[in-house]
Amino acid sequence: MSGEPRDWRLKDWLRHFGKRQSALVNDLGWSKAKASETWHGVRSYRRAVVNEVADWLGVEPYELLMRPEDALALRRLRETAAAIVAESPATPFDHAPLRKSAPPRVKGPRNGTTG
Description:
- Helix content is about 45%, strand content about 0%.
- The chain is mainly α and about 120 residues long.
- The protein has a domain at about 10-75: 434 Repressor (Amino-terminal Domain), CATH 1.10.260.
- The relative contact order is 0.10.
């Protein structure tokens, strides 16, 4: 991952969904200049733009910062974990040993020693 720009993956996601730069103009109503500048990374991305594109594509805004295959793998991992939890009759840590607490401290006269 070193050497890769820390930027959103607009082109990757549009490619993933089979969309072209022109879809930004046609579907989102962007100007051709805004679509081109955003596509080529000339225009800085802003929260409103990321949210707009995420809503349009049906993905989470943070996923646009990841490669589609990484975001989809993370989704599958979450879904699998949720399915495992749903199938398990026991709650997590049911069989884990309880940690014994320290005995209560007896309060008495202080004699200058620790303990």
